[in-house]
């Protein structure tokens, strides 16, 4: 399960998605995620599926990496589907047993919510797979730059996000090493009930926290030794510049949003949740 977490990982490839400006990828990803929640029709999700599939194909990121990133949210996905399946009432009753009822409306809500969660993770994964942590940090800092006018420490916020993204793969690797070391010493991490498994995780969490604090302290000392003083007056080795392909990406995403909006509002044969 640890190795299935893909947050913060970068997949090197030569694709048009990799070459896009990080600001364009961040904004386009946010617009795609918004589109998943502003429409609720079957045809709209067909368009979203075609759009996401095209982006995955253009990114040259193997589909198995995208699917791998969905495994950590499987429990959350199942919980969301079950809760929406039984708690949403309305429409024709499809199945009824004891105190539980599955209605047509509950089935629609649970299916569409599952699709939303999967597409949300997949769309976010594409952005992180095709953008290096440094580029992602620069893009966030540029997009938030106007907040400097109201004394928001934009550079510090972007730096913290960059450090967090860099630490995620390192801590996952460290967790995997600690788990293997504990198993080699005879620890049983997989058998027993939930409480026993939670208790077995204590020998893993303690050294993991110690390692994380040690790495954080080493990083702070290294930054202080190099006289790091924040973003004021700092220049970029690779300044961000918009190109024609970035403008084309914005136009394509806006056309996609318009298509989804029109389908959700005006196409009569759409299947609605509500």
TrEMBL record:
The keyword Ribosomal protein does not apply. It is a multi-pass membrane protein. GO terms for cellular component: plasma membrane. It is found in: Cell membrane. Keywords: Cell membrane, Membrane, Transmembrane, Transmembrane helix, Transport. Forms a stable energy-coupling factor (ECF) transporter complex composed of 2 membrane-embedded substrate-binding proteins (S component), 2 ATP-binding proteins (A component) and 2 transmembrane proteins (T component). Belongs to the energy-coupling factor EcfT family. This is Energy-coupling factor transporter transmembrane protein EcfT.
């Amino acid at each position: 399960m640890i190795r299935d977490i893909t947050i913060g990982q970068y997949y090197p490839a030569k694709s048009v998605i990799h070459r896009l400006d990080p600001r364009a990828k961040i904004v386009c990803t946010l617009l795609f995620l918004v589109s998943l929640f502003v429409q609720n029709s079957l045809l709209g999700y067909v368009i979203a599926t075609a759009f996401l599939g095209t982006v995955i194909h253009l990114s040259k990121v193997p589909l198995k990496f995208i699917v791998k990133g969905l495994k950590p949210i499987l429990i959350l996905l199942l919980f969301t589907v079950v809760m929406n399946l039984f708690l949403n009432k309305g429409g024709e009753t499809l199945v009824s047993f004891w105190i539980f009822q599955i209605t047509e409306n509950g089935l629609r809500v649970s299916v569409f919510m599952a699709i939303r969660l999967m597409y949300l993770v997949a769309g976010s994964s594409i952005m992180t797979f095709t953008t290096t942590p440094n580029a992602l940090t620069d893009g966030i800092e540029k997009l938030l730059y106007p907040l400097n006018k109201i004394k928001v420490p934009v550079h510090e916020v972007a730096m913290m996000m960059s450090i967090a993204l860099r630490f995620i793969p390192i801590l996952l690797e460290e967790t995997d090493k600690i788990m293997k070391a504990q198993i080699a010493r005879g620890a049983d991490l997989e058998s027993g009930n939930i409480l026993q498994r939670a208790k077995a995780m204590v020998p893993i969490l303690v050294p993991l926290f110690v390692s994380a604090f040690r790495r954080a302290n080493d990083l702070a000392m290294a930054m202080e030794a190099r006289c790091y003083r924040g973003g004021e007056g700092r220049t970029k080795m690779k300044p961000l510049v918009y190109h024609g392909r970035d403008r084309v990406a914005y136009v394509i995403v806006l056309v996609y949003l318009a298509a989804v909006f029109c389908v959700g509002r005006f196409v009569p044969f759409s299947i609605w949740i509500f």
